[in-house]
């Protein structure tokens, strides 16, 4: 199969070969003549629809405080204790 190769980065951008002309829902048209263009897939970019690497800060925040994103209830019980 021949065609454009698009690469999706988990929790990050979609990388597509440029140049590209991007039409966004508000009617704007964004053009990029770069060799490879990163389209924001996380929705946090201040330069949307282009990736500004804001997705990296989210990954760091998740790595620093993974329990903040957990749905498991917090416990204060001693896991080694046999007392109910
Ligand atoms: S994917 Fe990079 S800022 Fe959204």
Describe the 3D structure.
This protein has 84 residues and is of the alpha+beta class. It has one domain (7-65). The protein has one helix and five strands. It has one helix spanning 54-64, and strands at residues 7-8, 14-17, 20-23, 29-32, 36-39. The strands form two sheets. Strands 1-2-5 form a three-stranded antiparallel β-sheet, with no helix packed on it. Strand 1 (7-8) and strand 2 (14-17) form a beta hairpin. The longest helix has 11 residues, at 54-64. The chain starts with 6 loop residues before the first strand and ends in a 20-residue tail after the last helix. Mean pLDDT is 82; it is low at 72-84. The site of FE2/S2 (inorganic) cluster has 12 residues, from helix 1.
Report on the biggest sheet. 3 strands, antiparallel
Cα separation of the termini: 63 Å
Bound molecules: FE2/S2 (inorganic) cluster
Largest sheet, order of strands side by side? Answer: 1-2-5
The residue-averaged pLDDT reads: 82
Q: Output the radius of gyration.
A: 20 Å
